[in-house]
Amino acid sequence: MEQDVSPVTALVVTAAAGDQQAWRELVDRYAPLLVSVIRGFRLTPAETEDVAQTVWLRLVEHLDSLQEPRAIPGWLVTTARRESIRYLSSQRHRRMSDPLNAEQPPVAVEVPDPDEGLVRSERHQVLLAGLAELPSRQRELLLLLMTDPQPSYDEIRRRTGIPVGSIGPTRARALERLRRTPAVRRYVASDLSGGDRHDAASLG
């Protein structure tokens, strides 16, 4: 049987053994996925950071049991949703426990349906899993191009070191490599719904 020697697998094994550099690399690869899930619950930036820190702590606790890198995106999505709902529930309980607090009047907390937008979340999860497989420079470029509002080419050049005239060609190569990642290829091959299967292409 052919052994999985993907860079993410190596990072997971090394981080589980206590290597801090490997752990930082894992965080860099999957932080966009984690933050995007938490932001879907309409938390403030400070609240998002608090929930994200909780999720990373949970990952540290379970890293030994997540040797399969394909499990990490799904695990992060599930745990981020659970911790976000838990946070919102605790905040709602705190407000209900102090109804006379004039500085924080009762506000209806709208918790998103966990099943709402499931297909979109799955596509986004696959996209971020594919991005995690790219070299850091290509990954950073595509993430910047996905930002809303998108930064100027001068800003992208400053942050990535890629000359303005090379941003387009580098982007094209990164997208092609993204389409060939196992995560994206598996998703496209297994998607029989006939819906939009071209999230990677939508970056163009």
From TrEMBL:
<dbReference type="InterPro" id="IPR014284">
    <property type="entry name" value="RNA_pol_sigma-70_dom"/>
</dbReference>
<dbReference type="InterPro" id="IPR013324">
    <property type="entry name" value="RNA_pol_sigma_r3/r4-like"/>
</dbReference>
<dbReference type="InterPro" id="IPR036388">
    <property type="entry name" value="WH-like_DNA-bd_sf"/>
</dbReference>
<dbReference type="InterPro" id="IPR013325">
    <property type="entry name" value="RNA_pol_sigma_r2"/>
</dbReference>
<dbReference type="GO" id="GO:0016987">
    <property type="term" value="F:sigma factor activity"/>
</dbReference>
<dbReference type="GO" id="GO:0006352">
    <property type="term" value="P:DNA-templated transcription initiation"/>
</dbReference>
<keyword id="KW-0731">Sigma factor</keyword>
<dbReference type="GO" id="GO:0003677">
    <property type="term" value="F:DNA binding"/>
</dbReference>
<dbReference type="InterPro" id="IPR007627">
    <property type="entry name" value="RNA_pol_sigma70_r2"/>
</dbReference>
<comment type="similarity">
    <text>Belongs to the sigma-70 factor family. ECF subfamily.</text>
</comment>
<keyword id="KW-0238">DNA-binding</keyword>
<keyword id="KW-0804">Transcription</keyword>
<dbReference type="InterPro" id="IPR039425">
    <property type="entry name" value="RNA_pol_sigma-70-like"/>
</dbReference>
<feature type="domain" description="RNA polymerase sigma-70 region 2">
    <location>
        <begin position="26"/>
        <end position="93"/>
    </location>
</feature>
<dbReference type="Pfam" id="PF04542">
    <property type="entry name" value="Sigma70_r2"/>
</dbReference>
<keyword id="KW-0805">Transcription regulation</keyword>
<protein>
    <submittedName>
        <fullName>RNA polymerase sigma factor (Sigma-70 family)</fullName>
    </submittedName>
</protein>
